[in-house]
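Lab meeting, action items carried over

1. Structure of the two-component assembly. Owner: GW. Status: complete.
Input record:
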Amino acid sequence: GAVVSQHPSWVICKSGTSVKIECRSLDFQATTMFWYRQFPKQSLMLMATSNEGSKATYEQGVEKDKFLINHASLTLSTLTVTSAHPEDSSFYICSARDRGLAGISYEQYFGPGTRLTVT
Amino acid sequence: AQTVTQSQPEMSVQEAETVTLSCTYDTSESDYYLFWYKQPPSRQMILVIRQEAYKQQNATENRFSVNFQKAAKSFSLKISDSQLGDAAMYFCAYRNPPYGGSQGNLIFGKGTKLSVKP
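Predicted assembly:
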C-alpha cells in the first residue's frame, strides 16, 4: 500500500528557534498534501492544504507566516514552524493524496506524525 | 459548511462482543465520501472503511461494517467480534470530491475512544 513518511518523528527545540518537518510520499505521486495539528485527546485540525508548485491554502486562524509550507515536488512537502513558542507544542500530521487514476481514486494517506515540543 | 458529529466520547465493549459507534454529518452536497479512521496509541491514522455516497450498499471490511443512512445523514460503524487490538480512537470523516472548487479535504468528528475489555 501507499506509504507516507514524516521526519523527524519527535523534535525538541528551544523557544524562538525554527523547526522543519518533512513529509514524503514514498511510492506514489501526491499533487496535494494536507497538514494537520492534533492536541492531546482531540481531533485532527486541518492547518493548510498544499498543491505541488503553488502556494498553500491556510485555514482560518492559522498564521501563514508562522507555519511555512512548501510543496516543491510531487513527493515532498515541508512544514516549517518559525520562531516556535511553547504553545506550538503539538502533534503534527501530514497526509498525501494520490493523483488518482482517471479521476476515480483520490485516496488520502497519512504519515506517522511528528511530536514537537518547544521548551 | 460541512460538519461531522460523534456524540459518544467514549465507548466500551467486551472482547468478542459487538459495538456500534455513531456518526452524523451535515452537508448540502449529493456526492461525497464518508470514512472511519482508527487512531491507536501510536497515533498513526489507519483507514478502517470507506463509503461512497452514491452507493446504496453498505460497505463492509471483514469485522467492520457501516450503516449508511443518506437521508438521515447518519453513518455508524459496527465492529463485530471485538478484539483487544480494536481499542483506539475512532474518527468519522467526511470528504467532498476534489473538484468543483473543493480541495477535497477530510473533515473529522471529535472522535470516540473505544475500550475493549478482556
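2. GW to write a short summary for the group page. Key points so far: Chain B touches chain A through 18 residues (CB under 8 Å). Chain B has a mean pLDDT of 94.
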